[in-house]
Amino acid sequence: MFGRCGFKLRTRAGAAIIRLGAGDATETALRQKPELVIGLMSGTSYDGIAAALVAVRGAGLATRAELRAFETYPYPPAVRRLVAAASAPPTGTVDLVCRANFVLGERFAEAAVRIARRARVALGRVALIGSHGQTIHHLPAASPPSTLQIGEPAVIAERTGVTTVADFRPRDVAAGGQGAPLVPYVDYLLLRHRTRGRLVLNIGGIANFTHLPPACRPSDVLAFDTGPGNMLLDALVGLLTRGRRTFDRDGALAARGAVSQPLLRRLLRHPYLRREPPKSTGRETFGVPFAERLLRAGGLAPEDLLATVTAFTAASIADAHRRFVAPRGRVDEVIASGGGCHNRTLMRRLAETFAPVPVRLSDDFGIPADAKEAMAFAILAHETMAGRPGNLPSATGAARPVVLGKIVPGR
Q: pTM surpassing 0.70?
């Protein structure tokens, strides 16, 4: 154990055990019987539902979590088209949003049932489900600010019989925050360290990171969305292939192209990159319309365009570090998670950009890169049921810590 601000990690086949906190509180937590919690997450790429079954003991700094099972359940093409239509004005009508909300509720419930079955755990033994839902619109800078996640939790609770916590973001927005990112609270619980400065990077549809200075307190944590992660690349691949592909597998297409330095410089002048945190963004800024504008500009072969946008994704992450993190203190290691970790071209560029600081996967810390966000919403739901705030005002900009989510009782 790394002193009072560290963690102890043990792993075994099929499980990751994370021990947090220190002293009497942690020892008390270890003596408690763990509660089984299912975390459900679907990101801004809306490609499927990540489901994690987590055994959680304790709360706050005494939290201890064990990953029992994890799987990603892809959306069927028809569901993905429905979510895309509901997310994209002017086609995103009230009728589409209404139907998509309940269709996704059924899908989230099915994912919860399937992950419990995979772990050979009866649903009656599951204490809680934490569902992030599917973000279809996020307007933190509007007046008034707003955000919308769908995937009706009443359907999840009814189909599974398990108490469900969902809709985590609006309470932070109501308290003056961006409603995102919320995972930094869990990053703080799981990955803070007494002597090492860490940059915890998640590459989903949008990329975001959490800076954890050595021996940090909650008020020391800085976190925000850096810009595009997989979203812009996925949109370009879909447009270039007319829907035959939805992403650049392993970054293979980008690896065959050459980076256009003039376009890269132009992309790096995007105003979002210069905006001071706290800040968050989404499909409204870096989604399909942005990709369509890049294609209309023309002049580049498809592989060159993908190579340039991959370089832009890596460079925007590095730019956020240089502008907003480096002045606050050192970073000893970058800990990466999310679907973007499978893009070898992107990861190679990140390693080159941050060298000599190592870029490591969260798997090295017992948190599978694909499972981390689903695990986080299991832990956030557990904190909600303990009556504990789950946001970090230093990350979201909220006026105060607040208890997140809405609770739908089970049977």
A: yes
